[in-house]
Amino acid sequence: MTTTDTAEGPGYTSSYLADQHAGQLARLRTLERAFDGVSQAVFEQLDLSGKPAILDLGAGAGSLAAWLSTRYPDATVTATDIDTRFLADIPGIRVMTHNASTDDFPAASFDVVHARALLCHLTEREEILTRAATWVRPGGWLVIEDVSLQPSLNTANPLFRKVAEAGISLLEQSIGSDMLWADTLADRLRERGLSNVGQRTVEGRIGDNSAADTFWAATTAQAAPALLKLGLLTQSDLDAMANLRADPGFSDAALTLVSAWGQARG
Ligand SMILES: C[S@@+](CC[C@H](N)C(=O)[O-])C[C@H]1O[C@@H](n2cnc3c(N)ncnc32)[C@H](O)[C@@H]1O
């Protein structure tokens, strides 16, 4: 992986996707609308009973943590993020500032450790996954969900492919993201010794006015100044892509949300 040195250095928190960006809360809401139903269905099949301790790592704007505290009223739900500004007013959850790349939890602290759309963006993803597996109690679950942009690379449309390649390149250069890592998630969990590993992959499209389409458009719009600044796309590329997306004759697979889960051995 190559990274571009900027004044602040590469990384999520100094990037165009960081929480201090004016459009970030609205963009995170589009992500939640696209993926919360998938994440909730994954939790529903885990058979959580008693008073589970649940960690949502890199919880963002917190809609999933809020749902967890309502769905499992006896649970203790801890929501962490490196920037907790959007988590402050959510009732029923514990909020903690925590850098997943450097901060730890004691071994066997939680019945479920969950992270969505986080590890793909952190260069220490493999090491974080290893540590996060140790935070799960025997019999508990590690649930990792991440976005893969592989479908956008498979498109037959040359403009969409150009925009997709530019977006993946920007994410890699400016943040250190690996937007294909999600495709190997289940194997990564097996490598950590987890059992009963399962996986679900849900496709998101563009050009169909779906929630995934809105998330894709919000993220591309937020990335636009950086794409132009680095010369990865021109304004006419972006304008043509906006027209293509609005064309009723166009729709294409853009991404998958890969959800993978595995159980800590007793
Ligand atoms: C794409 S958002 C996903 C938010 C949430 N998990 C969701 O799916 O709705 C990524 C989140 O990770 C947080 N983040 C970035 N780097 C982090 C780190 N090193 N440790 C913890 N959180 C981090 C960001 O602040 C942001 O809220």
Automatic annotation (TrEMBL):
UniProt domain Methyltransferase type: residue ranges: 55-144
Leading EC class: transferase
Any single GO BP term: methylation
Residues in the signal sequence: none
GO MF annotation, one: trans-aconitate 2-methyltransferase activity
Keywords annotated in UniProt: Methyltransferase, Transferase
Keyword Secreted part of the UniProt annotation: no
EC id: 2.1.1.144
Superkingdom of origin: Bacteria
Keyword Transferase appears in the UniProt entry: yes
Protein name listed in UniProt: Tam_3 protein
Organism per entry: Pseudomonas fluorescens
